[in-house]
Amino acid sequence: MPAYPPEPWRIKMVEPLRATTRAERETALRAAGWNPCLLRSEDVYVDLFTDSGTNAMSDRQWSALLRGDEAYAGARSFYVFEQAVRTFYGYEHVIPVHQGRGGENILSRCLIRPGTHVPGNMYFPSTRAHQELNGAQFHDVIVDEAHDPDSDHPFKGDVDLAKLKAVIDEFGPASIPYVSLAATVNMAGGQPISVANLTETCELAHSHGIPVFLDTARAVENAWLVKHREPGWACRPVAEILRALCAPTDGAVMSAKKDSLANIGGWLALRDPDLAEQARGLVLLYEGLHTYGGMAGRDMEAIAAGIAESVDENHIRARVAQVEYLGERLREAGVPVVRPFGGHCICIDAAAALPHIPRDEYPAQTLACAAYLQAGIRGVERGAVTAGRDPSTGENRLPRLELLRLAIPRRVYTRAHIDLVADALIAVHRDRDRITCGLTFDWEPQHLRFFQARFAPARGPSIFGG
């Protein structure tokens, strides 16, 4: 049995959970069109759909809510929020948005023009959607190991510099508005990028006059993995490593619903004052005034407190260790999981777990349904459904990774919950031959289809036959 560290917090308030029967879960799943995303939360026992906005705030954050200044313009809470971002992330110009995708929208509208090209270390659905809606084509320049769930490469988030150079050479620097990097890389299973590779990537891009923007939603987790995997960083505090990750970049987009331990909010941070003024003008149109950006003052106060808590060594140690505990339990039982384990989630290789389910019947979506039916656990598909369709051909994209992601909220679940998840997924894997078919679309939305799509079993009334 892998070690499980004691949580560096104690419970002060509880939220009741309702256990359901398998019959109740099957009824709920059918009503949701075989899409766990459409389940009502009261029908879910352990919710690992996302770690975004599902964190438990601390007593200090709840206290900070009461200090919120709700002035429409120039609220004191904005300046508290601004100073926290400047202190821990190192960017001068801080523009609040309602959440991360608000920043993605603003940045894309500022810089992207039709016919341009954006390289990045693997796509993220909402990021790529904003880039494509503004006329750009995304190019994956991540290292090949990122697409191999069995590779033990410590930094699967690294950029393949030869791939990036090839994109620059093919399309020219003038056609590349920016390089889009993530730390960690969600779609690869929360895999980190090394400080050395990020720095080299920025040097290459900057030598061609191309700016680099970083998705910092889980950069604290990336910093912790750097501390334990990259030579020369073991004795550095996480806060210092976080600043080192941000230092070579030109700006960042942040969903404060992840590392910053908040339930809503985010920011766009920039170094270029002219670009910052342009972004503030668009924030006025799409988010709100540039000193609140769609957030209440109390939310900005809670985020500021959460930023400081996020780099606490005891917090981040326990957070990542909980993820590793789940991964080790599954790995030891023979469940095919992405290695090495990431910072915020464990991903099951659904293509390996359900090799008898064709890719066009969406094995990861099928496995997500089986996990819910087994024990009321909600994960999310990260494979062909999430990848969507090619905007030019209309054909399904079939990424090499076909994953069921189990994202663990911060400071929410105990060891007993994590053991329940492990036991349930081990049982599903043991009885995987009982899953006789996959799923087909019953209704398919145009964008980010994994959120709202409805499915039906490919053959018969159930994925278990009959």
TrEMBL record:
Instruction: Note the InterPro entries from the entry.
Output: ArAA_b-elim_lyase/Thr_aldolase, Beta-eliminating_lyase, PyrdxlP-dep_Trfase, PyrdxlP-dep_Trfase_major, PyrdxlP-dep_Trfase_small
Under SUPFAM superfamilies, the record lists: PLP-dependent transferases
Q: Does the keyword Lyase apply?
A: yes
Please report the stretch or stretches of sequence annotated as the Aromatic amino acid beta-eliminating lyase/threonine aldolase domain. 47-423
Highest taxon in the source lineage: Bacteria
Q: Which cofactor does it need?
A: pyridoxal 5'-phosphate
What is any Pfam family matched here? Beta_elim_lyase
Enumerate the UniProt keywords alphabetically: Antibiotic biosynthesis, Lyase, Pyridoxal phosphate
Report the sequence similarity comment from the record: Belongs to the beta-eliminating lyase family.
Which PANTHER family does this UniProt record tie to the protein? Answer: BETA-ELIMINATING LYASE-LIKE PROTEIN-RELATED, TRYPTOPHANASE
Q: What's the protein here called?
A: Tryptophanase
**Could you tell me which species this protein originates from?**
Amycolatopsis melonis
